[in-house]
Amino acid sequence: MKILTIFKHKLSVILGVILIALTGCERDLSNDVRPATFPATAEVFINGFSGGLEYLPFGGSKLDAFTVDNQTFYEGTAAMRFDVPNFGDPSGAFAGAIFPDNGGRDLTGFDALTFWAKATKAATINEIGFGNDFGENKYLVTKNNLRITTGWAKYVIPIPEPSVLNTEKGLFWYSEGPEDGDGYTFWIDELKFEKLGTIGQPRPAIFNGQNVVERSFIGSQLNMTGLTQTFNLANGSDQTVAAAPSYFTFRSSDESVARVNALGQISIVGSGTAEITAILAGVKAAGTLTIQSLGEFIAAPIPTQAPENVISIFSDAYNNVPVDFYNGFFAPFQTTLGGANLNINGDNVIQYTQLNFVASEFKNPTVNATEMTHFHVDIQIRENIDPGDFIALELGDFGPDGVFGGGNDASGRVTFASNQLVSGQWISLDIPLADFGLGSRANLAQVFFISDATISTLLVDNMYFYK
């Protein structure tokens, strides 16, 4: 104890002397001091992993899809080999992984990720790029549907805006499934970042360059979609990549109506109209989003049926059955846009625009509603109702074989005329299933909303069968 006490006393004296010395001799940091920087290493895979590189496969993928191949390569002594599984392969449904350097790299001095590749057959890689780190993926870049052949060729994936990549971890990623049900092998070699200096004519876009109009309500959240950057390459071809929202700078013409953050998330905060535009690296992006905020949103009535008596297709009040889609986009005859894409203060709502007909389909598995007695749905029409307007609901049953087009499909329809409809408020429809005139309800798979373009904008909520 004495030794410890003496030591503590001496330590206090020493620290006191040091503190006095420091406070009595303050100095500014030298202008020569620079903050720590990340390595500007260009190489990702050249005959092997570059320093810090890791291999992390996606969940559900073939875990051993990637290997280092010392027999087949473009240059040097090795290449990256990727074995895409056949359809139904128990080892994984697809091949996919990220290759991060979790220490981070400074990629601001480069303008593209480049590599050489070939495959055992002509194929199209679903997704390939960089910026995926299993985290925020803030600067994710994706080249969709990259076509490769059986001969070695060089591929270029441009960087949308290099100046932001000063601490990038996601150096490479890919995801690819079977081609026509069959697996195959492809190789990538000389994978690295380059400063080519031949990438030009940037043409960024939002909403795929379209001028989109979206009706919504205060409290709803929307996301910027169709974000791309297109460059012209040295060979004269154009290369388009999907770019993360963080590459763009977004602007709202009226922030009292709509605000958009750096991640491309749009918040509707007031009534009125606002136009969302974007800039990438000083270039105005093609495309706009015009928000028409309809004001405060009144939610549909809360369902009161007991859960054990309900088979729900769409409702926050119940557990929904598996649904394939809420809009099948049956081109060229269907004009209807939208689907289950509206979230207002946590309330999920289906919104359809340009409605002529639209289907919700739930065939995997079909629904056995034999014991149910009614079909319920809440709808809201967002426009004036004119004589001749109507909404028809149609149920489709796929028959005993449970598949569409098997020769035993059946459907039945119930129509509501203009004098049964109101505008701007929720209409709760409780339709006896017998009114649809179906011989069997053991394999229900579709619910159609049909207006033949007499009614354009429709909100839908709480769609379920009950007894």
What do these coordinates show?
The relative contact order is 0.10. Strands 13, 17, 18, 22, 23, 24, 26, 29 and 31 form a 9-stranded antiparallel sheet that branches. Strands 2-5-10-7-8-15-14 form a 7-stranded antiparallel sheet, with no helix packed on it. β17 and β18 form a beta hairpin. With 467 residues, the chain is mostly beta strands. The N terminus is likely disordered.
Q: What does the secondary structure layout of this molecule look like, with pairings?
A:
Layout: H1 2-23, E1 43-45, E2 56-57, E3 66-69, E4 79-84, E5 95-105, E6 112-119, E7 123-130, E8 141-148, E9 153-158, E10 168-176, E11 184-194, E12 211-216, E13 220-223, E14 228-232, E15 238-243, E16 249-252, E17 258-260, E18 265-268, E19 272-280, E20 283-284, E21 288-293, E22 310-314, E23 337-344, E24 347-353, E25 357-361, E26 374-381, E27 390-397, E28 410-417, E29 426-432, E30 444-450, E31 458-466
Parallel strand pairs: 12-21
Antiparallel strand pairs: 1-11, 2-5, 3-4, 4-11, 5-10, 6-9, 6-11, 7-8, 7-10, 8-15, 13-18, 13-23, 14-15, 16-19, 17-18, 19-20, 19-21, 22-31, 23-24, 24-31, 25-30, 26-29, 26-31, 27-28, 27-30
